[in-house]
Amino acid sequence: MVRVVSVYLPTLPTDRIRRADPSILVEAPLVVVARSGSKRWLSAVDANAAKLGLHVGMPAAKAQALVQGLLLVDADPAADLAALERLTLWALSQYSPVVAVDPPDGIVMDTEGADHLQGGEELMLSGLVNRFRARGLLARAVVADTWGAAFGLARSMTAETKVVPLGKTADAVARLPLSSLRLSAETIVSLRTLGFKTVGELAATPRAPLSLRFGPEIGRRLDQMFGRVAEPIDPIRCPEIIEVHRTFAEPIGAAETIAKYVSRLVIKLCRELQAGGLGVRRTDLIVHRVDNTIQALRAGTAKPVRDVAWLTKLLHDRIEKIDPGYGIEKLSLAATMVEPLDDKQIVSSLVAEATVDVGAFVDVLGNRGSYRIYRVAPVASDVPERSVKRISPVAADVGQTWPTAWPRPVRLMDRPELIEVMALLPDHPPVWFAWRGKRRRVKRADGPERIFGEWWQRTSEWAAVRDYFTVEDETGERYWIFRSGDGVDSDTGSHRWFLHGVFA
Predict the structure, then answer these.
(1) Taking the model in full, what pTM does it have?
(2) Phi, psi (degrees; rounded to nearest 5) at 408
């Protein structure tokens, strides 16, 4: 089943202008003006201008009269398209092997077989939108069974993300406006004149009268939206990407045959990589079928490699996901992410002890979901929840050490949990505490260990204090609890108690 993501960038022209000119005030309303002869109208408006009542299509003179101090910039479609292509190439390296420009304001991706690397479709979409927002770009993203459905939903909804379940396309698009069908403006106006308002109403109408009056375009767009007709995505390719191909005179389909030619493509790809002194971090196998559809498989590695046997194994492990259909006419193997890789002399066991390389193990697990694999590294911070961070499992040593003055629990809560406590202030440990509905009497305690707030990061932590205790209950279980505040001054904290960790 094909899964297509449509990314809609509704304010791409204004966002591009703001990124190119940081001197533009954030609160200043900004519009883009297009020209046709002597006519000038708004072709794009940012959020500030939209709040003031401006909209696309409004005459520029009227907009200037309505909003004092309005910033107008002439439209530059070539620059907008170049920016969209750069974003598409970035998405190609991060999310899917099959990504294409959907001008003038969108990106389309076939994410079948690649979404698991981002933690699933929901996490993939939310991460995508958040990364665009971090770059000053407003985006909406939808994943559905067809390009047409994802396109229409992305441009009709107000939410940032939406995941249409498998097989639920018809229900999801029934109430979409006619403009979501990618028809010409004249056709949409004529359909509205006839009384049609939604896609569902149009789809329920007999096809023959519509075709007789408007031609085959309406039927084609409906079939594409509902998945009755394939709409292949022609993927964008960067000239710098190293890619090898194999075209077949007769279509192939057997798994053994596919595996044989994949192995040959890996050998050719590694030769190209070696010539450039490069190693691959992400490889994409593109499968072109005779029915003009494309399938793609993506394999990643924790560090740059060009080992033929290992890359072949990573791809062979996923060949079973390929559906050859009526046959495969072309195979392409691309190195979409590469890094410099120098040849190294293998160290003899007579000179030094061999070190264990976990890269291969990480690669196998990573292709099942790389978001699950990480290594914990220390951070120079006394605040426990800030003293660790996730890093790549094959990353170099970060140069920090764990604190050794006081013991730390083996399990730290995601967030400190509020507990009920009886304790003598200001410096005594609790006599008992209640956590998750159960009261525990304290038999032994060690502390307090005072931790101060990091005032150089947050002004609200100028006087913040935590007093930590290691306590043991009557069953021998040991916990790490703290009081927010010094027990005397209310400015140092709320004086409430929290459980932050559990010892082994």
Answers:
(1) 0.71
(2) -120, 145
